[in-house]
Amino acid sequence: MITNGIDPKESGLRLYQMLRARDISVLRVADELHIDHSNVYRWLNGRTLPSAEHLYYLAKLLQTDMEVLLVERRWKDG
Question: What sign has the CA pseudo-torsion 41, 29, 59, 14?
Fold first, then answer.
């Protein structure tokens, strides 16, 4: 397998699932990170990725590692 960076859509889906599993709302994330809730929705919809700083705080909030929040884009070689 070859990676081609981070898959924003799959990463957004993973973040959504992790937030939902822990009953953490978009508004709480926005409040904790001191950002507008529309930014969080853009992450969840795969339109953008969180910055490194926001990933750090998301990982802390979700009690996980930053790498867990990101899904690599993959395709088969050949």
Answer: negative
